[in-house]
């Protein structure tokens, strides 16, 4: 049975107010009484009622998180980092998954606001005026990560564009003349928020320009990208680089190329993006872009807690990346 | 500014009680008034106060989850399944991570109980009388998954022992005569709850016996298991099978064997356990044991919600597995 403040008060023969003073370390009672109350509370395994308490102090000490899913390795790692940092700072984490569906995401945000989370870390698929006006209705502070909405919203992300540009520098430096770019999410351009994918594509184009690659790249925005590759004849005369906007596409591409007996990287080069931890078991080692996913989780929580406690976010500059030189380029 | 029931009542020129009736679909008001109240509530973007509400109905509509971490692919997949099913049933998920530390886990459980979650899904590293007596103090229903505590606690798991036994059947059937078994968590035997690992080991022994393998296996309980392998000379005369209690160990072992130029499976066979999704990118394809991780998440939520609403868990038989015949045995 749930032990209440009243139960403790009865046993200690003091008022409920005195018990409350002792438990919440407030003044107005003797040290002897305080000790007695705390001892009885411990013996009776008294647990403070946070639900009632949160009504009083106006905080629930929880941070809500909206992610796409956890099947993506990077998201799981991100959530792990968020939970660790939040717990360190005394906060709990509500996890909600949108499955990349805009209407699901709205439900997630609605629920989190209704549950009175103290802040929301949002990896959004939504964008546009209507969505911003929807978000503006809430008092709950929001930090967007990866997918940027507008300057109105606090943002923690990485230098995606610069990273892809530098990846192209590296590939061009290795003598590749023709480029294929694979990014199925680009099919959603203008429909959902695919900011990170757009940035990577812009960086790709800027990289081509900077390296005077004049041959037009093939941009594959199709989830059937392996089928698209089946229509291409790879010759030994021209080195082709297949640039993938995430490691998972790159791994699928490598599986296909290996099955076709094509040599990586001699005939076809493959570039990924993410540096997921499983790469160390795959041969050849994928060349890719590494970025500090844990840091994004950590920084967004720190900034949120600062906002909750002191009213301001901690402005976070775009985080840096690193080209991982594997064996596939 | 937060819209309250009183605000809506003022605008509609009705009492707060009438607004409450309309919002919660209770009888005692006219259809016309109900429609008017709902319209105004929507226009004003009224959000029900779940924190206050949970005090009244005595439920928070949240399920707490205690896992080790999300770096392990299977745990991320499990949490994803839990979140999906919970949301479908109208529940929210609090995620807490113990990092496999018994004292962290106690903190997680304490917090979840204090936050008044309606139930806890627990992947525990704790065990023993003291821990059970600690758990018994709470009214919150608990479902244990994977690591079994005792018959006192509801449990959802898989036929681990049977799975490993059948894996040995398969390996022995392929002509392997010597066995190495790798399971670093066994170093914690008697210290923390490693039930699944113990079951797998028991199944391994039972499999050896059933297949009349008389040569003593080498059991490696060391996290430096690759170093242990370095001391072993693999000859071409005796086929050795390295049985790993999870895929991640098996992938490390395959990396080592490949580096040493040993042929898999001709000289050394490797068996995993988990069938993580990344295996499809690794050659040779790892032979492993697949089990329905999503189903464990789904079933545990369904059982918990039944307990919350109707007082009883849905008893779940141990879930089944499948031997995935890859190329490594």
UniProtKB/TrEMBL annotation, chains A, B:
Q: InterPro entries of this UniProt entry? A: HTH_LacI (IPR000843), LacI/GalR-like_sensor (IPR046335), Lambda_DNA-bd_dom_sf (IPR010982), Peripla_BP_I (IPR028082)
One Pfam family, please name it: Peripla_BP_3
SUPFAM superfamilies, A to Z:
lambda repressor-like DNA-binding domains (SSF47413), Periplasmic binding protein-like I (SSF53822)
Q: Which residues form the HTH lacI-type domain?
A: 3-57
Report the GO molecular function annotations.
DNA binding
Q: Which CDD domains match?
A: HTH_LacI, PBP1_LacI_sugar_binding-like
User: Which keywords does the record carry?
Assistant: DNA-binding, Transcription, Transcription regulation
Q: What PANTHER family has UniProt attached to this entry?
A: HTH-TYPE TRANSCRIPTIONAL REGULATOR GALS, LACI-RELATED TRANSCRIPTIONAL REPRESSOR
Specify the protein name.
LacI family DNA-binding transcriptional regulator
Q: Which organism is it from?
A: Halalkalibacter kiskunsagensis
